Records
---
Amino acid sequence: MKQFRSLMDIIEERKSIRSFKPQEVEEEKLNYILNAFRKAPSAKNLQPWKLVVVKDKKIIKDLAIACNDQTFLEEAPIIITACAKEDEAYGVMGGYMNSYSIDIGIALEHLILAAAEQGLGTCWIGAFKEKLVKDILSIPEDVRVVALTPVGYPAAEGDERGRKPLSKIVCYNKYI
């Protein structure tokens, strides 16, 4: 019988992975995590996103360079690039901002947690040169690259990263 882990267990166990086994990711697991992304909420349910799933080793090598020479990305069997269609996103969140970065952030976190549940490692990549990524992946000018993540089986455990206590990040009734 399959042992189920709680969502909090998955959140607590998940770490950024920067070393991957050469093992391919099964299509069933890939589709599972892509569906987790697809099911995420977005402002006004506009779903202003598109994912580029890369398995080609030459393209992955080029992406590693575009991601400020993060060579560990070359070990991953898959790199997923999360793109936003800025003009399709809700344009006035809070009365002053476009929702696309938050929409993609929520959806990519769904994907990352689903990957952890499936025994796969990921690492949120925000250090990249957007123009280079766009050129490599033929992403149109009017589409924004928000983040990338490698996906694969971890070859090593990720580093433990500390978290601030709740008392430092939560206040009640007023911002203090």
Note: The first strand starts at residue 49 and ends at 54.
---
Amino acid sequence: MQLKDVTWERDGGVVTLTMNRPEKLNAQSMDMMDSLIAAFEEIERDDDIKCAIWTGAGRGWSVGRDFSDPKLAGAAPYGPEFPRGTRLLPLSLGGRLQYALWRCRKPIIAAVNGHMLGGAFSAGLMADFRIASDRAKFGALFVKRGRVPDNGGVYMLVKIMGLAQALEFMYSGEIIDAQRAVELGLANRVVPHDDLMPACMEIARSIASGPSLAIEFMKKMAYRTFEGDSMESLTAYEAFAQSVCEASEDGEEGVRSFVERREPVFTGR
């Protein structure tokens, strides 16, 4: 897999993806978006990958789209250079990335090391959760550009923050610090900057050592609830998920370890 403007590091079942344009605070070029899409699609496909950490190199997580990239000028994902499956989707350029994130069943942790702004802010909301450095900043700056939040930003903000808080946040174009982001539900916690990656790796390794089928089903059920599934529909899916988990090697190990009064050793099968 060839990646440009993104680095890929593998540590057992954990992959760390780093947006790598530090000189531009990781502004998202077309090459970066294409590489992130390819990376998240590979994470989705590879069953040996259990969890992903998504971060940025240098001082910024990402400040959004790089408007100086000629490949992005007036572009839309409808031309023959794009895969046919992409051309069937009514998406913006950044929406292709959001779609890849939304359908990835593996847990994704955003390690927010600096500014998360604009379209990159919308993208970062698609991670399962965000751990923020005490230097991190968050903002949906679209109103200051005479635009609306794109790539699912409005949907995610209203779902995460609630209607009134989301509207105030979008109308103002305010940039907030990490502690305020936690208060609004945009980040799970704040850690000292130098502890960010170790903290995220500890969480990711814990997830990767768990029962992968159960964890991926949890994500699917949580997102179905988030999207408004009925109780009847969700409990029917829950029964299906439970039957698959019970028949898995990890399901058997979970019961066996309980009977034997020891910690379970899961393999992801």
Note: The radius of gyration is 19 Å.
---
Amino acid sequence: MRPYDFSPLYRATVGFDRVTDLMDRVLASEVNHSTYPPYNIEKTGEDSYRISVAVAGFSEADLTVEQRENALVIAASKADEGEERTYLHRGIATRAFEKRFHLADHVRVSGAAHIDGMLHVDLVREVPEALKPRQIEIAKGDRIEGKAIEA
């Protein structure tokens, strides 16, 4: 893997250090990236998303879904069943896992469902009214909101 140097960005920009930190974190975790359990990320609407995780063998009681600041953490741990089994072939892994997804600002979890061995987590982006673009009315004449414009 080729290391990337983001120092030229620091010289030419202000306030983008979170972006470069995120890129550093993604590139560093790429080496340790686990493919278990498999998952999909899909865009279901203009401002909505769904993460689907294959959790065959886990019940709702074994799963936890938490949103911590800008991170979604999905974890599972299987309680010991107590009885000893002898497997001739064991293809369904039920080992404990923790998956982390970094969320953009203003993205929140709107719900989760466990259906047919799949855990579906729905996300929605809600931009506050203060951050949405707004049209500014142009005043006619020499007054702005009741104040005279100084010449």
Note: The helical segments are 7-12, 17-29.
---
Amino acid sequence: MKSKILLIGIDGLNLDTALENAPTLVALKEKGFFTPITIEPPTWSGPSWSTLLTGTKHSQHGVIDNSFAGHKLLHHPDLLSQAFYQDQSTTTFAAAGWPPLVDPIGHGPVIHERREQAKALRHRVLVRDGETYGYTQVDAEIAAAAHYAISQHGPDVSFVYFCGVDEAGHAFGSIGDEYKGAIARIDAYLDNLLQAVHARASQEEPWLVVVTTDHGHIDEGGHGGDSARERASFVVANGVGRENPQWPQAFEPHELVSLLLAERA
């Protein structure tokens, strides 16, 4: 039986801080596959998520900042789309509060709209606007919708994105209580999603849960440069109802998509 893939993106997460404030993520790291990865600069969310979600480098997808000006995303389908093209029985789901990732009315989106599959209920996308309404509220909505989607529909390949950690880092820096509190809040959402995954896996449905981030933050808050802290990312992958993946201990961010698709082959 093919594994179902749940990719969770936590924007702007410094792993060293998370390991002190995110017990669910710590447990996943300890019992799953783990490797650090190094993000290609500039370390903005647009280029980084485009790379992580399409499996292509900046020079290929054409996203070099958060304006998405001149992007080539239409020619570089995302993980969910590639999974569908690989097997057209595949159901997909995406939920994000940063509009360029999922909103067809705007700069992107990185996740292709795929209207025909959406009309056939094989591709569901939840679009929210955390830039306008704040990520504390919007991340909670994303978490609730993702829990429902996993519990009730069990999509074959999903991408769920949270941005409250990055928002706190920009507003308050990445070493204070606000940043740590945002990490703890997202970690609780992660735990809730894992409960839904475990419930489905108990019915002999194998799942692979993967967590990553697009960049880190300097202590005073912010990113975009090429410092080690800004370029630091990671991949945690935990098999639920199956073994952990046998992936290389070192790979590039653009290689994540092909590794995930191989788990569906």
Note: The chain is about 45% helix and 15% strand.
